[in-house]
Amino acid sequence: MFEAELNRETVGQQVVQSLRNAIITGALGEGETLTESALSKQLGTSRSPIREAMQQLRREGLIVSGPNRTMVVVSLDAEDVEELYEYRLVLERFAIGKVCRMSPDDRGEVVTRLEKVLEEMRSAIAAGDDFAISTVDLAFHNTLIEAGRNRRLSQTYRGLSVEFKMLINRLETYRPSGEELIDDHRAFVDAIRDGDEVRAAALIEAHLRSAADNLRQSSVDATVTS
Q: What InterPro entries does the record tag this protein with (predicted)?
């Protein structure tokens, strides 16, 4: 299972966050059965916040109903990977177009925000913290989406961010080296700085398709070794 520390937030919020993080990192594996009694005992709380947390995670699409009133951690198959990355590509291409057509000053502000996240990525890579790397990687792309200044686009992207994180965390040994990851994102920032929509779109497509290919390969390897 997994270890979780409950901090000073409300118990319900703590339970939701603890379970969500456990699912994202794989501490609660795909297809794993969850029961109120077991989680209540492990987290040292009553069943009420556990029940509320499971309802929230069900709304987020992270767990589904199982037999005998249990819940099961959702499994993302090859089709899910393909759909999610195709969707990301559509959304991020749109944001790229909006940003590249901004004035140089406005675009410069976006570049500054992206470079700040890039520095956070360097720190996470230097620390060898896989969870932090995944979090910052997604934050980089979220920054791009937010820069597109479309509320509905941002809401849609945020709504899928947990599933994106689950997939990013799956990569682990299939993730590019730290230097490659930085270089990929640096090249993208340079294209945005230049206002080169075609180059930026090509870079983001190559980046996302490579990630999707690596995820498919990781699934194949996991099947072979299981």
A: GntR_C (IPR011711), TF_FadR/GntR_C (IPR008920), Tscrpt_reg_HTH_GntR (IPR000524), WH-like_DNA-bd_sf (IPR036388), WH_DNA-bd_sf (IPR036390)
Phi, psi of 134 (to 5 degrees): -60, -40
CA distance 26 to 210: 22
Q: 207: helix, coil or strand?
A: helix
With contact defined as beta carbons under 8 Å apart, do 212 and 224 qualify? Answer: no
Query: What are the structure tokens assigned to 201, written together?
Result: 């779109």
Residue 65 shares a structural domain with residue 83: no
- Structural domain of residue 66, as residue ranges? 11-73
Give pLDDT tens digits for 83-132.
888 999 999 999 999 999 999 999 999 999 999 999 999 999 999 888 78
The enclosing domain of 205 has a CATH number of: 1.20.120.530
The residue whose two tokens read 């597109």 is: 148
Structural domain total, the chain:
2
Flag whether 198 is in a domain. yes
Ranges in the chain, pLDDT < 70: 1-9, 170-176, 218-226
- What is the H or E stretch that residue 73 is in? strand 71-73
Q: pTM for the full model?
A: 0.76
CA distance 35 to 51: 9
- The alpha carbon dihedral of 187, 162, 3, 221 has a sign of negative
User: Cβ contacts of residue 111 below 8 Å, gap of 6+?
Assistant: 189, 192, 193
